[in-house]
């Protein structure tokens, strides 16, 4: 079992964890529909990079 050689201070622990936070998702606007969506993901209407990839129901 691993045993630490010396105590890690609150400051040092905080410095290590400072890079662990999540960043906000990048949002893009589709060229065709103008709908906002996450980068590299298709819109709920089924469009990706201005082309319709998936047919959706017209509810």
TrEMBL record:
Residues 1-59 are annotated as: Disordered. Residues 7-16 have a biased composition (Basic residues). GO terms for biological process: translation. Pfam families: Ribosomal_L32p. Keywords: Ribonucleoprotein, Ribosomal protein. GO terms for cellular component: large ribosomal subunit. One of its GO terms (molecular function) is structural constituent of ribosome. It comes from the Bacteria. NCBIfam families: rpmF_bact. Belongs to the bacterial ribosomal protein bL32 family. This is Large ribosomal subunit protein bL32. The gene is rpmF.
